[in-house]
Amino acid sequence: MSRLLRYLASRLLWAIPVLLGASVVTFAIMQLTPGDPARFILGQRASPETVEQLRRQLGLHKPVYVQYLDFLTNAVQGDFGTSLQTQEPVTDRIAQRVPYTAQLSVAGLLIAIAISFPVGVIGAVREGEFADHASRVGALLGISTPNFWLALLLILLVAVPFQSFPIFGMTLVTNDPIEGVLSTVLPAVSLGTAQAALLTRLLRGGMLDELQEGYVRTAKAYGISTGEVTYVYALKNALLPTITVIGLQLGSLLGGAVIVEQVFGIPGLGRMAVSAIFTKDYPVIQGITMFIAVAFVSANLVVDLLYAKLDPRIDVGGGEQ
Amino acid sequence: MLRIQNLHTYFDTDGGTVRAVDGIDLEIDAGEIVGLVGESGSGKSVTASSIMNLVEQPGRIAEGEIEYDGQNVLSLSEADLSELRGGDISIVFQDPMEAFNPTQTVGRQLHDVLRSHRDGAVHPIVRALGLDHDPDYRETVVRMLDSVGIPNPEERYTDYPHEFSGGMIQRAMIGMALLCDPKLVLADEPTTGLDVSIERQILELFQDLVEEMDTAVLWITHDLSIVSKLCDRVVVMYAGKVMETGPTESVLSDPQSPYTQALLDSIPRYDQPNDDLYVMEGDVPDPLNRPSGCRFANRCPEAHDRCEEAHPPRYEVGETEVACYLAEEGHR
Amino acid sequence: MSTGRRRMGVRFRVYRRIRTDPIAGVGALIVVASVAIALFSIVDDFLLSERMISAVLHDPYAGDPSNRLANPSFSHPFGTDEQGRDILARVLYGTRTSIIVGVGAVTFAALVGVSLGIVTAYYDGLVDSIGMRAMDVLLAFPAILLAIALLASLGRGFTSIILALGVAYVPSFARVTRSKALSVKSEEYVTAAEVMGYPDYSVLRDEILPNCVTPIIVQSTFSLAVAIIAEAGLSFLGLGVTPPTPTWGIMLSTAQQYITTAWWYSLFPGLAIMVTVLGYNLLGDSIRDVLDPQSSDGNRRL
To answer: Which of A274, B114, B233, B318 is the most exposed place for a label (fewest CB within 10 A)?
Structure first.
């Protein structure tokens, strides 16, 4: 256990500077906007005095690094200011939307895993046969298909003929399980297919690598059954790097969710981010960006810990080689 | 006990078919330690893999018979082969660290071998959940780790391969090989890469075990000094063929094949420090394009016309057999 | 010099693979075709007074109110859109945006990322820690989100998108290059150059860089594939380049409104994206097999 705790400590040591850096980036991006936010809010015809008043109110007269520190201190307390559009606290708005994006992303990930694991493993075990070729072609098509196009195709081919799949909005499974699942299926498939394709390729490659390793040959030479060697020894070792990638893929999932939410009108973070751009609601944009960065880094921490638990070779001394 | 007849093991590569083992005969009796000597590429490791029908794509056993205890190994079913492998016959590999799964404890891996042979295969899910673990088997493994000279065997059972040193992991490998009381152990260069002192310990280990359990051993090596210390008989291979075979003493003191002689000459002698190192001229023939005559002809200091025609048959000279025309002519 | 020899080998091997392997051939064909169509569209649109495409097909900008949302037919193989414009012509013209943004973003990402990768690999220590930590920061954001945030401040337009996507892809190039550079830097020819007193920048540029080329090429094809999809996605969201430039993303975005009445509108632009990206992925796969044979994708823990 102490090995894991030490590993956790070293990963935290890594994560905190990264999150700090992320906050700098988030803050900096907003600073890049040309023009004066106060004037933008008040419009062209506002008097210079009103603009100046708002500037003071928003703290825009302070030097940049002070503004950043303000931003940071507030962010750490979970305060991202007020939405320019709806006057609600940004944090509240985010909290409203998170469940939807979470439901979509988790469902997408589950579908990706459910598809990729069997297909990837079978492809490696039956290398060169039809099943393998078919899975490789499928995977290649999967990574080449834009998720929003897949969404449109699914709407066209599934939702329209079979009326039970809603094409707008999403119900949370906590509210209504059946309706929740039905409203999540098509978006999740659109989202998860590309991830599934990527994971399939990865897992297949990993399995093929493992099956070449010395211990596989040894196990066979000692009469251990192929089933045991393939599905216990080799598979576990092939899954390890795959797990890490799944962690990284969470980023792509969240990115993909932005688009899929748009297609299906899902009231999640992604859709809020997009509309915030059009309404120039900077506090919201900053809030969502930081939130997602934090979520992503935390998820990767969990994944790293999981990996370290499963792979006894991981040494505490260096998280990054 | 083990009889190999006219074994041909080929590898089909893009450049052509490599005849790694090109017609060899070999016999091992119970309690014997036989040394299989040759340079890299001579086919000695492939011979070992062939014995238990472990040759993998793109290799295949093209011809020949391998008889163990009266049964033809090459016609055994997968189930019977699984019983044989690690059971009656086991193999010790050259690179023991590679032979173990890095994410499983050493003890667990030995346990699995024992369990497979006593209880058979288990379903992957059962194994993944660890439900197949048997404390009696664990005890047997710990005792074995102890008898191969691993200190603190109880604790070492739960250690991972990377936590073992080179010498220790090789002992663990030997332990795995002996776990199911094999009648024959194939040792493929088990001491290459180990310190000389550790090497000596391992050789002693083998000697003790052979004495105690009457196990036959096929010791594969390129190192003639080991052969002279350990082996009762020796088989000399070159380019896929057997050049000479016989009792160690006879072969090493009075070699009938020029190749064996050249091998002996190549060993630097500490009592003759001023000699230049003897190096055999020429190169091992291209495995894709071997000569039709004697394989060693292009490097042999005593080659003559006859040697180019066909690879020589086996002649008996006293207790040794040698594949060299010189034997027929009563030379040497 | 070892560097010169290595470079010729790369080009030759890739070329030979394309000639012999049908999959690589198809990929290369698609890639070349997409670039050719893009160039043609640029030339046609901006340089010629009369668009050639109008002669063969239809003017991509000319709407025909009497022929809105028409089914695919002989004269309009992909049908028409809600303004009566020929979809096939617009799809062909759409290639331009995708390719320009893709190539631009990847070039930017490569220039910055490769330099970073080489420098951090060579100098190690603090430089390496800071550099890689910076990459981690960038990677903490999903690429699309980062692009969106950047676009929020930079506004729309070609340069903004290229910059936004380019920044998002810098880490991939940095990692891949750093990985290769780490193994290259311990090679003999590098030590030889150092010992002979060549200045650092020369060692980096002449010895290390040329030998890192292979994984960079592989990464470029894959990043291009991703960039094309990303650009389409951003256009779909309405954050892409401004109209009237036709882009595949915008077409699909409009198509959604008419999904029940005009299936062809949703199908063909997306098909164009898929086929193009497939081409880049096919080529990337084959090139990787030839130049950088590792059975699994390069997403291992670094």
So the answer is: B318
Supply B182's token pair.
């094999």
Q: Does any CB of chain A come closer than 8 Å to the CB of residue B241?
A: no
- Of B293, B220, B287, residue with least CA distance to B11: B287
Cβ A29–C149 below 8 Å, yes or no?
A: yes
CA A119 to chain centre: 23
Q: Do C and A have ≥3 inter-chain CB pairs under 8 A?
A: yes
**Partner-chain contact C233 A282, CB within 8 Å:** no
Answer yes or no: do C137 and A252 touch at CB < 8 A.
no
Q: How far is C172 from chain A (nearest CA, A)?
A: 12
For residues C70 and C132, which has the higher predicted lDDT (pLDDT)? C132
What superfamily in CATH does domain B1-88+183-332 come from? Answer: P-loop containing nucleotide triphosphate hydrolases (3.40.50.300)
pLDDT (tens digit per residue) in A173-215: 788 888 888 888 999 999 999 899 999 988 998 898 888 888 9
What is the spatial distance between Cα A215 and Cα B329, in angstroms, rounded to a whole number?
50
- Phi and psi at B28, nearest 5°, equal -135, 130
Here the CATH number for the domain that contains residue C70 is 1.10.3720.10
Q: Which residues contact C95 (CB under 8 A, 6 or more apart)?
A: C34, C37, C38, C41, C272, C276
Predicted ipTM of the assembly: 0.85
The residue assigned the tokens 């991981």 is A314
Cβ distance A146 to C256 less than 8 Å, yes or no, reads no
The alpha-carbon gap from B81 to the nearest alpha carbon of chain A, in Å, equals: 7
For residue C182, what is the nearest residue in chain A, using CA coordinates?
Answer: A321
Please tell me which of the candidates B85, B90, B162 has its beta carbon nearest to residue A313: B162
Tell me if C239 and A244 make a contact (CB, 8 A cut-off).
no
Nearest by CB to residue A223, choosing from B86, B99, B162, is B86
Q: Look at residue A320 and tell me whether its pLDDT is greater than 60.
A: no
Contact B215, B92 (CB under 8 A): no
Look at B328 and C25; give whichever has higher pLDDT: C25
List CB contacts of B35: < 8 A, sequence separation 6 or more.
B219, B220, B221, B226, B227, B230, B231, B233, B234, B235, B248
Q: What DSSP state is assigned to residue B298?
A: G
Say if the Cβ atoms of C256 and A244 lie within 8 Å. no
pLDDT recorded at residue B324: 77
Q: Which two tokens stand for residue C177?
A: 């290059």
Helices C263-291 and C87-123 pack at an angle, to 10 degrees, of 30
Read off the DSSP letter of residue A129. S
Q: Is A237 on the interface with B (CB under 8 A)?
A: yes
What is the count of structural domains for chain C? 1
Structure tokens at C139: 């990677």
| CB nearest B99 (choices: A215, A232, A236) | A215
Q: What does the alpha-carbon distance between residue B319 and residue C98 come to, in Å, rounded to a whole number?
A: 81
Q: How far apart are the first and last CA of chain B?
A: 33
Q: Do B102 and A232 make contact, defined as CB atoms within 8 angstroms?
A: no
Q: State which residues form the domain around C263.
A: 3-301
Q: Which runs of E-coded beta strand occur in chain C?
A: none
Cα three-residue angle C94-C99-C105, rounded to 5 degrees? 130
Contact of chains A and B by CB distance (3 or more pairs under 8 angstroms): yes
> How near does any CA of chain C get to the CA of A173, in Å?
26
Neighbours of chain B (3+ CB pairs under 8 A): A
Backbone phi and psi for residue C172, each to the nearest 5 degrees, phi listed first: -60, -45
| CA-to-CA separations, B277 to A93, B10, B140, B224, B269, in angstroms, rounded | 83, 34, 49, 16, 9
Segments making up each domain of chain B, as ranges: 1-88+183-332, 97-181
CB B195 within 8 A of CB B201: no
Which pair of tokens denotes residue A190? 């659109």
